[in-house]
Amino acid sequence: MTTENGPAHYLDHAATTPMVPAAVEAMTAQLVTAGNPSSLHASGRQARRVVEESRETIAQAIDCRPGEVVFTSGGTESDNLAIKGLYWSRREGDPARRRILASAVEHHAVLDPMEWLARAEDAEVELLPVDHTGRLDLDAARAAIERDPASVALISLMWANNEVGTIQPVAEVVALAHAHGIPVHTDAVQALGSVPIDFAASGVDAMTLTGHKVGGPFGAGVLIVRRDLDLVALVHGGGQERDIRSGTLDTPAIAGLAAAIELAVKRQAEHATHLAELRDDLVRRVVEVVPDAHLHGAPLESRDARLPGNAHLGFPGCEGDSLLMLLDARGIECSTGSACSAGVAQPSHVLLAMGCTDDAARHSLRFSFGHTSTAADVDAVVEAIGPVVERARAARRA
Amino acid sequence: MTERQGDRLRVVAAMSGGVDSAVAAARAVEAGHDVTGIHLALSRNPKSYRSGARGCCTIEDANDARRAADVIGIPFYVWDLSDRFHDDVVEDFLDEYAAGRTPNPCLRCNEKIKFAAVLERALALGYDAVATGHYAQLRAGPDGDIEMHRALDHGKDQSYVLGVLDQHQLAHSLFPLGGSTKPDVRAEAARRGLLVADKPDSHDICFVADGDHAGWLREKLGDQAPNSGGPIIDDATGEELGRHEGTYGFTIGQRKGLRIGRPAPDGKPRFVLDIEPVSGTVTVGPRERLAVHRLRGVRPRWCGGAPSRMRGTVQLRAHGGELPATVSVLDEFVEIELHEPAFGIAPGQAAVVYDGTRVVGSATIAVTE
Q1: CA angle, B323 as apex, B144 and B158 as ends, to 5°?
Q2: Which residue of A has its CA nearest to B82?
Q3: Residue B56 annotated in active site
Q4: Chain A interface test: which of B16, B80, B86 (most A C-beta within 10 Å)
Q5: A343 chain-B contacts, CB cut-off 8 A
Q6: What are the tens digits of pLDDT across the range B119-165?
Q7: pLDDT > 70: what percent of chain B?
Q8: What does the alpha-carbon distance between residue B1 and residue B159 come to, in Å, rounded to a whole number?
Q9: Phi, psi dihedrals of residue A295, rounded to the nearest 5°
């Protein structure tokens, strides 16, 4: 991560964050040992022991039972398993349960499986509105549930939004849903390590976590599933993971994942304080340089409403793409927060749901801090942002 | 280009995902420039445009361009110009066909997108020039102007589609391939480890998904009367020889696909002589009636200063030959007197004027006689 201008200022930790040494150590220790955790011999038993200890470590960190931890390949698979697996099992129990409720600002790993279920599996998807900060409209959620509770298969509500960092009223939705026996899934990928997460206390029925957002390896995640919840499998095979998720367990990745989660939870409070200081400093100083820049999402003063490492800023008159490119050339790495797998960036569905215009949705950047961030990163952005915004505005007018 | 040799420029390399633009970008780097690769997303719905390796608008092409940038070692971004492309190129293409003309969207794209929208954005972002994989040569002229000349490889020369560029655009352009042949460029791509070395050339119009030009026009224009159908008339007798499904399926000089059951009395093939968009009438007749001696061009674009009257050559279609001509410029018109007749010249195509190998400018053919 270096450029000709010196080391890069990596401010895209919400996309992924470097592995922490403890995770690298735990993972590499397993990379050189043989043993399939499903084998019965000594090597297999040794691998199985690592997997089960990792499971227990995660259970203890998140406050769930070890048997509730299902290892997956990451956030997207966990979300798919939760949405499809829950939908299928709930509909099996009662064919009338076809409605899936979710906030309009969910990640595509939640939205796309729901849309697929609507197309292919007769589901009815209802996206619930959010306010201008991106927080779920609880009255709308209540009304949607109470209109016909018996027909709701599940509700999915992310713990915190990946783009604007808004923390969602998960506990309130759980209370509304459980009054009618409706299971709730939450994608807590962005929240883990940044805010306190307690699976048991939250009351949710299923929770998605992933390794690479908290200093663990790529390709390793978990779905925490309440023990008494039925889930139809997506992947069939050797019957691993309570038959919910077949496939040879990836012992090294699981060891790294557990080490990262354990550390992330242990350091959460101190980490959050550090990130919030950097983030607040960045927002304040950027607005000093670019007076019409504005923060999207919850205000900084509402400490519990926003992820500590997230600064999502709008720069009127600019294209986010131009800003990103100009900052990249100066060694500052951030994100426009818009999906562009096809090459053509679409305006963010999150910002549009928050009431931003198409134009406003395109003039934004997300800076996200993480465990390697320093005050020098903030200084670099503050120094660059004035000329960069000026250039991006000129390019927009061109 | 000559005057810039040795200067380190900040260059945007437009990378289509093909071999030419990849090698052009690599050469710009090698010339010492600070190069950023840009792929232009031109389709609003990438899947609806051509798929496979032949077009310029697909996800695969964006990926090919990205991989080439990786190999060359330059930053790479996708710029979304789909709205501009739709408004300035696709809509214009449809309007021209609806008016019975035969447009060349590649010239239009060069004029309005690659060397306008992209160039202006690049300049505003602090870049000095746009580099593309076009085969044409830029040189400093005696008066300091930048001159554009045909590529060294006349078989591959693309100066025709660049004939719409003015001095400002040329002064901020780099065509690193102008002095090379295509086989050399492919060999160089292979030597540089660029995976697109063997990728087939693109030929057809990039926004027509399956290359079915008439089918695409039928889908887009089919309901727009009078293009939904009309008579095919014999030029000599005025007799109706048949019906057609839309004038967009025809271009002046076309011989194939007329689907006229009866042969002409003299047994000679018939060609499209005229397309009348209002009545939808397509007139056909023998080849000698296609002969064009004079052209009137509109919307002239000059690479440097506009000439008043000159003898030179003109090229009237993308892969056509050069014809000696006398060109007179009258305000917003260009009169082109051909010293020998041309056949099958379609209004809407560009007439590009050359002085030797130098491109003087271009105009859109409006009237032929």
Answers
A1: 55
A2: A344
A3: no
A4: B80
A5: 39, 41, 46, 59, 62, 78, 80
A6: 999 999 999 999 999 999 999 999 899 999 999 999 999 999 999 99
A7: 92
A8: 15
A9: -85, 130
Q: Does domain A21-266 have CATH number 3.40.50.2300?
A: no
A64 as an active site residue: the answer is no
User: Minimal Cα–Cα distance from A6 to chain B, Å?
Assistant: 16
Catalytic residue (choose from B56, B57, B206, B303)? B206
Tell me how far apart the alpha carbons of residues A3 and B191 are, in angstroms, rounded to a whole number: 27
Task: Give me the architecture of the A2-18+268-397 domain, per CATH.
Answer: Alpha-Beta Complex (3.90)
Asked if the C-beta of A230 comes within 8 angstroms of chain B's C-beta atoms, the answer is no
Summarised one tens digit per residue, pLDDT across range B186-206 is: 999 999 999 888 888 876 677
Q: Return left, alpha or beta for B22; rule: phi > 0 is left, psi -120 to 50 is alpha, else beta.
A: alpha
Residues A366, A163 contacting (CB under 8 angstroms): yes
What ipTM was reported for this prediction? 0.85
Across the strands, what pairs with B364? Answer: B298, B350
pTM across the whole model = 0.88
Is A114 an 8 Å CB contact of chain B?
A: no
| Cα–Cα distance, A306 to A259 (Å, whole number) | 26
Q: What is the mean pLDDT of residues B250-276?
A: 83
Q: Which residues is A186 bridged to in the sheet?
A: A207
Closest partner residue to B124 among A329, A343, A398, by Cβ?
A: A398
Which residues, 6 or more positions from B271, have their beta carbon under 8 angstroms from its beta carbon?
B253, B254, B255, B284, B285, B286, B287, B289, B290, B344
Average pLDDT for residues B172-184, to the nearest whole number? 97
Contact by Cβ (8 Å): A363, A395: no
What's residue B54's pLDDT? 37
Q: What is the pLDDT of residues A341-358, one digit of tens each?
A: 445 567 899 999 999 998
Q: In the predicted model, is pLDDT for residue B7 greater than 50?
A: yes
Domain spans of chain A, in order of start: 2-18+268-397, 21-266
Contact between chains at A343 and B120 (C-beta distance less than 8 A): no
Subunit contact B80:A345, Cβ cutoff 8 A: yes
Report CB contact under 8 Å: B82, A344: yes
- Nearest-CA distance B333 → chain A (Å): 29
